[in-house]
Specification:
Layout: H1 2-12, H2 29-38, E1 42-47, E2 50-55, H3 56-71, H4 80-91, H5 96-110, H6 122-125, H7 130-143
Antiparallel strand pairs: 1-2
Helix pairs in contact: 3-5, 5-7
């Protein structure tokens, strides 16, 4: 999968080289529920047997810096609205890599389009349609487009 991301970037002028392979959340559903209740702002994930703690602040910062890089804009990751949009995705269990994939795909698709370029913003990308954008990005990635 990582090679496919690389090919997407090389052929379409979108740089996702900072994206890592998908991260799995380990544990039973009961364990996950306990963890969620105990600390909603932190997730403990296992990546190649290395434990990684992702705080909500780090989640927001990394994604918005990536969005700013792709769009040439200056969105604030501490903004109440931006944090609200990202909090919903964080609580769904989305990874930084999922969100970066959507940002990169939609940037490739919309950037430079007079009608769509303005929609490369947190209020559009991270709202409920996020799942649709992610499914589309994954499909295109699998197709090597």
């Amino acid at each position: 999968m990582h090679k496919s991301i690389y090919m997407l970037l090389v052929t379409n002028d979108v740089d996702l080289t900072s994206i890592r392979p998908q991260v799995e959340v380990r544990g039973s559903p009961k364990d996950k529920e306990k963890d969620k209740d105990r600390d909603k702002d932190n997730r403990q994930m296992t990546l190649n047997e290395t434990v990684v703690n992702t705080s909500f602040k780090d989640f927001c910062e990394e994604i918005i810096l990536f969005l700013n890089e792709k769009t040439g804009r200056r969105y604030d990751y501490t903004s109440k609205d931006t944090k609200g949009f990202l909090k919903a995705r964080f609580n769904e269990g989305r990874t930084v890599e999922d969100v970066k994939l959507v940002v990169a795909w939609m940037s490739r698709k919309w950037k430079g389009d007079p009608k769509m370029d303005e929609y490369l913003r947190p209020s559009t990308l991270f709202r409920p349609k996020f799942s649709e954008y992610l499914a589309e990005a994954r499909q295109k990635l699998e197709q090597g487009k």
